[in-house]
Design a protein that fits this description.
Blueprint (H helix, E strand, L loop, with lengths): L14 H12 L2 H13 L3 H29 L3 H11 L7 H33 L8 H13 L1 H21 L2 H29 L2 H9 L8 H14 L6 H7 L7 H29 L10 H11 L4 H33 L4 H21 L21 H28 L2 H8 L5 H26 L1
Helix pairs in contact: 1-8, 1-11, 1-12, 1-14, 2-10, 2-12, 3-4, 3-9, 3-10, 3-11, 3-12, 3-16, 3-18, 4-5, 5-7, 5-14, 5-15, 5-16, 6-13, 7-14, 7-15, 8-12, 8-14, 9-12, 10-16, 10-18, 11-14, 12-13, 13-14, 14-15, 16-18
The structure holds phenylalanine.
Length: 457
């Protein structure tokens, strides 16, 4: 980055820089940690099929719309929504969902930082040469030990938040751009290596069938909502992070093309992660429905059998940590930008965001030990036995992001004029544009509304 634009909004130095930052925000724990275990909990291939459809027809159109709102509004999400609503003769109350988005970002960070902390622990564990000593029982014991240790969880989570805070407070987008452009491809290459290895030493047949041969009798509304929610989560849409990056996208870059690259890279990383994890899961008799620990037990096992596995394992978890960091930045940036529009310094603004997410984060930390069995909404039958961590992660996927997506689709599909939208996208009113607008106006709200209704009744 970055030269200040005449309006005072900073800009990325190029479209490539935006793509790198947006890929950095999209590719993260959602792809490598969350996608495999969520697919596992929801029965595999049928989930993957709905996820891919959801990406293409629901989440990707929203991603494009969110970038558009951000670039046109050139401000923080509440400000970008409010000012464009007023410009179109609507109420300034459109800024309110933008404010909810800021809180949503902090809520995501609250649990995201815990898992990112695990990657830090695993990086050091591998670096000490411990992966090579793991068998299935040893890998599970290590993971259980980590979850049970409050001091370790708090330390790693705190360190991860400090790193994020430091980067956002400095506003060093040049540093981020550079880090992302090296680390994300490097993570991809290591993943590819892992996939090849896992397919050779693991149960490749079963893994491929599990992920890609859908048994549609497993399809149900709750699973479909989880799949669409995962599609939103993995593209980072629905809480204003993408809007914020859109605000920094240079005016002459094509939103459609840039977005296409982000979606392609993000999807590739998720599928690779699935192919790296499941052959190992089946070969070692691990439970595919093992939940949030799936990757943290299966991948060390893959590394343990691999020559040089400790070094490669340390590198892998280091890259994953960086991928998580470049996602986390997008979770603090909207709050920081909004506060700075209100005269709060960047440093103070970031401290406020970090403080809020740290406090919320305690709920997730405690969910792995002292509050493991506390189910605050247990009086609702379907939420019995779900602890704070489960409520927060599910609440984000199945409620917060879909609602955010509805706001974005309503805003671009129904508040902004067609002319304004076409101008910002810098494209003609052709078939591609029409398919996209149709998805935005009808498919997204339709799918989200149906899934909500079916899940309630
Ligand atoms: N997309 C990120 C990931 O997959 C998570 C994220 C969600 C980041 C929402 C920002 C906003 O890891």
């Amino acid at each position: 980055m970055a030269h200040a634009a005449s309006s005072g909004t900073p800009k990325f130095s190029s479209r490539l820089a935006f793509v790198m930052a947006a890929v950095g925000s999209a590719v993260g724990l959602g792809n490598v940690w969350k996608f495999p275990y969520t697919a596992g909990e929801n029965g595999g291939a049928a989930f993957v099929a709905v996820y891919l459809l959801g990406l293409l027809f629901v989440a990707a159109p929203i991603f494009i719309a969110e970038v558009l709102i951000g670039r046109r509004g050139a401000a923080s999400p509440p400000q970008a929504l409010g000012s464009q609503a007023v410009e179109h003769g609507r109420t300034n109350a459109w800024r309110i969902p933008g404010l909810f988005g800021l809180v949503g970002g902090l809520l995501v960070m609250s649990f995201y930082s815990v898992i990112a902390g695990w990657t830090l622990d695993y990086m050091l564990t591998a670096a000490r040469g411990m992966f090579s000593t793991f068998d299935a029982a040893g890998a599970e014991a290590h993971f259980d030990g980590l979850k049970a240790s409050l001091p370790r969880l708090l330390l790693w989570q705190g360190l991860f938040m400090l790193a994020t805070l430091g980067i956002v407070a400095m506003g060093v987008r040049a540093g981020i751009e550079r880090a992302v452009s090296i680390m994300t491809p490097a993570l991809g290459i290591l993943l590819l290596l892992l996939v090849v290895y896992a397919l050779i030493i693991g149960d490749a047949d079963r893994a491929i069938r599990y992920l890609f041969a859908p048994d549609f009798s497993k399809l149900n509304a709750d699973m479909a909502l989880a799949a669409v929610g995962q599609a939103f989560f993995t593209l980072s849409v629905g809480i204003g992070g993408v809007m914020m990056y859109g605000a920094y996208l240079p005016k002459d870059a094509s939103i459609f093309r840039a977005s296409g690259m982000v979606v392609a890279a993000d999807t590739a990383v998720a599928l690779l992660a699935g192919l790296a994890v499941f052959p190992i899961v089946f070969a070692h008799g691990l439970d595919p429905e093992g939940g949030p620990g799936l990757v943290f037990v299966s991948l060390p096992l893959a590394f343990s059998a691999m020559p040089g596995g400790d070094i490669l394992g340390a590198l892998f978890f280091f890259f994953l940590l960086i991928a998580a960091l470049t996602s986390a930045i997008a979770l603090y940036e909207p709050t920081t930008a909004w506060l700075s529009e209100r005269g709060v310094s960047r440093i103070k603004g970031t401290l406020i965001a970090a403080g809020g997410s740290w406090l919320l984060g305690l709920l997730s930390v405690f969910s792995f030990n002292i509050w493991q069995d506390v189910d605050p909404l247990g009086f609702i039958p379907s939420l019995q036995g779900v602890n704070f961590f489960g409520l927060i992660t599910n609440g984000i996927d199945k409620l917060v992001l879909p609602l955010g997506a509805l706001v974005i689709s309503g805003f671009v599909g129904r508040v902004l004029t067609r002319k304004a939208v076409l101008e910002e996208l810098n494209m003609r009113d052709g078939p591609l544009f029409r398919i996209w607008l149709f998805s935005l106006r009808w498919i997204t709200p339709g799918v989200v509304a149906i899934l909500f209704l079916v899940n309630i009744f």
